[in-house]
Amino acid sequence: MAKWLGYFDKYVLFPFKLLQAAKWADIVHICDHSNSMYTKYLAGKPNIVTCHDLLAIRSMLGEIPQSKLGRSGMSYQKMILSGLKKAQHIVCISNATRDDVCRIAERGKDTVDVVYNGLLRDLSPMPADTCDSLLSQLGVSPDCRYLLHVGGNQFYKNRAGLLEIYDSYRTQDPAGKLPLIMAGKPFTETLRTIVRDRVLQDDIRELQNPSDEQIRALYTRAEALIFPSLYEGFGLPILEAQACGCPVVTTNRMPMTEVGGAAAVYCDPEDINGAAETIIKSLASRNEIIEAGKKNISRFTRASMIEGYISVYTSQLKSPG
């Protein structure tokens, strides 16, 4: 009942509230593309939609075979895509997402801008005493050296692939191997099976749903963030890690290469042994990677994000369309 009442609120009641609010607005900004179906109520009113990624729509179109949608999911994504096509203007958080939007929503590039996400928290390496205290809360020794992964269980986060990469890493460097801490959602049964089958229990540490400050402490002390995602809309953990002085090893695909720039180390996530070798090599250049990361995060500030949206608002209000 709660589910159906939610649908009634979203698709029947809210459009009326939106129409009333839009009367006084100069421009309407739909901040997440999953609500783009509301653009059909905004004809004649300047509007923009922020699109974070098209992964679900690409799944609906059969472009991502690892992700299957049910009948209701397919219908929902078709509604979102239709809304994106009707939007006056779209802002994407990366060029990778912009390329998808132009191709799939059949948009001209003059109707789609890129405004990068800014780091919304003031992140920096955590002071030693605070870091020690937070790590102790997690059961992590302050003098422990470890590799880190931060993420959920979505297929594109590639946590199963990460376990395979780590297994190869410890085989290639048994004397220097570091444990791997995986922070985020609880392991799925598939992940637990891989850990058992590969006998990784002594080297893998699962930390379920740590707080933001605990994650900051983990970034601060990690030898490297390992982030082998298959797809992303942006890849915020890359910037979070760099802001905390943590080197990043990530995927050699956009938008990871776009966000990490020259400051991250890249690997092919489907080349298990090659990715493991890249991790080993990156640890030898840790200090240089950290310094490059400090410079890279200057491209992703709150101020630049705000300026980007103000520029889009201004241009759309001046647009004759």
Amino-to-carboxy terminus distance? 42 Å
User: Helical region count?
Assistant: 13
User: Nearest-angstrom radius of gyration?
Assistant: 22 Å
Read across the widest sheet, the strand sequence of neighbours is 7-6-5-8-9-10
Unreliable segments of 5+ consecutive residues: none
Short description:
The protein is an alpha/beta fold. The protein is built from 13 helices and ten strands.
Description:
By secondary structure, the chain is of the alpha/beta class. It has 2 domains: 2-118 and 302-318, 3-Layer(aba) Sandwich (Rossmann fold); 128-299, Glycogen Phosphorylase B (Rossmann fold), CATH 3.40.50. Helices cover 46% and strands 13% of the residues. It has helices at residues 2-22, 55-60, 71-86, 95-104, 128-137, 159-172, 189-197, 212-221, 236-243, 256-260, 272-283, 286-296, 302-318, and strands at residues 28-30, 47-51, 89-92, 112-114, 147-151, 180-184, 204-208, 224-227, 248-251, 265-267. The strands form 2 sheets. It has a 6-stranded parallel sheet, with helices on both faces. Strands 1-2-3-4 form a 4-stranded parallel sheet, sandwiched between helices. Strand 3 (89-92), helix 4 and strand 4 form a beta-alpha-beta unit. The longest helix is centred in the first third of the chain and has 21 residues, at 2-22. It is globular. The two termini are 42 Å apart.
